[in-house]
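It is worth pausing here to work through a concrete case rather than discussing structure prediction in the abstract. The textbook approach is simple: state the sequence, then state the predicted structure, then interpret. We follow exactly that order.
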Amino acid sequence: MKRYLISTVVILAVLVTAWTAFGQREGRTRQRQQFEGMRQRFENMSEEEREKFRAEMRERRERFQDMSEEEKEEFRAEMRRRMGPMPPRLGREEQLKAIEVIQEQAAKLKASMEAARRPEGRRRPQKPSEEEIAKLRERFAKASKQRQNAIKAIEEQLAKLKGPTPPRAEPQESVRELLAIRQLALKEKAEGTAKRLARLIARYQRGPQRESGRRPRGPGREREPGQRPQGPERPPRERPARSRRDVEGAAAVSSKKAPALRLTSFCGKTVNLSDYRGKIVVLEWLNFECPFVKYHYEKTNTMIDLANKYKDENVVWLAVNSTSHTTPEANNDFAKKHKLPYLILDDRSGKVGRAYDAKTTPHMYVINTRGNVLYAGAIDNSPMGKKKEGVINYVDRALAELTAGKPVSTRNTKPYGCSVKYPR
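Step two, the predicted structure:
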């Protein structure tokens, strides 16, 4: 009994001091989540995408001002469909009325508990009659029903004050993307990668069930997406050895994060790798005094041809010069002489080169749209053009695979060329 009384007093004290917060907390939470999602998407945009987004917002504001009232209402309805309905809020009068109902039900709850209590000073009869037992049972049953009704009414009013909890958005977009990748893996007969993706898809789809208290499946008990259970679960089978292609395909999903890069080009433009999020970036470590680099610019034009080949395929090419004794004038003259379609970045301090562990010139890196290094090594397998047959341009192949939505088949090779002349 004391426990019920204490709970009632605590509930009333909390409601009196904080009643304005109950109807607004969920709305603020949802607004905060929407704002964080929009801010995150904006941060992941490139400068060009941000400017396009700002221009679109300005155009929408101007168009909204010229709308009629009917058109404005249609626009608001469309935004509500996109963003999801905001949880309704109780007004001041409704909240006060809900609190009054809670106070009335709390008084009834206290009265029912008092009615069920035996009067003080009265001793229990040694042997009550059948009539007395029936009356006691009736009184206790009535008090119990009153308590239950009062508690239910209080819970209903508290739920009304708190407001509805916004439904949890299911990761349907992520599931669709993973299913598309899995179909591609099956088409290329990368069975190991397809099975890993199937388990990941199943985990996404089981997310809401886990939150509701459902026991997750143990290792080896995952099913293919859409597969129906048939009979009891079988013990996990021994996994077959994974092929090299499977390993490389899986590594493409979770590869090494590219170190930060913020440098100024020798012509004065500041470049930040994070600005190219959503694009494929090629980094070429350059020293135009090196014979291996000269070959690719004076004999075969390898780098410029590749940069031009993929410039319309969402690929950005950047050259990085970590040679400590180089000068801005020499780099600008080199860029002008060869009409470079990309910038040469000034890393004479060697900070970025050491972060990437660049060892030679040229040393090539291919970074995917998520900022992960998917290839690092030589430009090809024919230093100075010594190999006449079976020449493989690793960067060209990696870019062709990435732009086609395929996993990179070769992720690491041994770079060749002159050593990077870092400052001592």
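Step three, interpretation. The chain has three domains: 1-116+134-166, 168-214, 256-419. Residues 16-24, 208-226, 238-254 have pLDDT under 50 and may be disordered.
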